[in-house]
Design a protein that fits this description.
By secondary structure, the chain is an alpha+beta fold. Helix content is 57%, strand content 7%. It is built from 5 helices and 4 strands; from the N terminus they run ααβαβαββα.
Length: 234
């Protein structure tokens, strides 16, 4: 298994992370990158040994390459788990949301498929997937989003891009993907914006209703008095 390895740093996080967290993430990716280089070197030497007719040497170097490949996968898995915990810890995203920042395409595919199946088993009917806008990718091209969309198609699920182009709404029931209207903007993992929209709009509306009610009580007696003077109230 070979993962694309780039030093993402701050772009891998969905929050203001500590410098220690960024350094740990980059350290693990760097270790994986080093193992990838050793793997490639060993396989190249194995091929050269085979071409020379040194079958035993080729086999030994090939096994060495496999060991480096396995170690590379271990470091990448540690980096993937680390960044996932950082970005998806309680309070950073809502319970119906998963953040894939900092993941390779292959890692994101495995994570989102597992999360979809887990959510379905728990009776959840939708999932918000933060795939990123590709701002930290080469040529600013979204790479994770197309793979997540493919996972949804493979699982027979419909999805749609949210107003924030770096997010997908997935219907876990198999029906059409129509995201419910959102009140207010979405912030980070969906917390601040929704609360601001719901709690910020209601008090103003309630105040307006109270003023209308006071105005009606003030004017109603005058209106009735005028009607009694000129009309018959049935």
């Amino acid at each position: 298994m070979s993962y694309a390895m780039t030093q993402l740093g701050h772009g891998a996080f969905n929050h203001n992370q500590s410098s220690g967290a960024e350094q740990e993430y980059d350290r693990l990716r760097d270790l994986a990158r080093q193992e990838a280089g050793k793997r490639s070197s060993a396989f190249d030497q194995a091929h050269q040994a085979y071409e020379r007719g040194d079958g035993a040497g080729a086999h030994q170097l090939s096994e060495e390459g496999k060991r480096h490949a396995a170690q590379m996968d271990i470091f990448n898995k540690q980096a993937s788990d680390f960044i996932f915990r950082e970005n998806n810890s309680p309070g950073r995203v809502a319970e119906d949301t998963i953040d894939l920042h900092g993941q390779s395409v292959e890692e994101a595919e495995d994570i989102v498929e597992a999360r979809i199946k887990s959510a379905q088993a728990q009776g959840q009917n939708h999932l918000h997937v933060i795939v990123g806008k590709g701002n930290h990718s080469v040529n600013h091209i979204q790479k994770i989003k197309p793979r997540v969309e493919q996972v949804c198609r493979d699982l027979g699920l419909q999805y749609e891009t949210e107003p924030n182009a770096g997010r997908l709404y997935v219907n876990l029931t198999g029906g059409a993907a129509h995201m419910p209207p959102q009140h207010g903007g979405q912030h980070g993992g969906q917390h601040g914006g929704q609360h601001g929209g719901q709690h910020g709009g209601q008090p103003g509306g309630q105040q307006q209703n109270d003023e209308m009610e006071k105005l009606a009580k003030k004017l109603l007696p005058k209106i009735i008095k005028k009607l009694e003077g000129c009309c018959v109230v049935m």
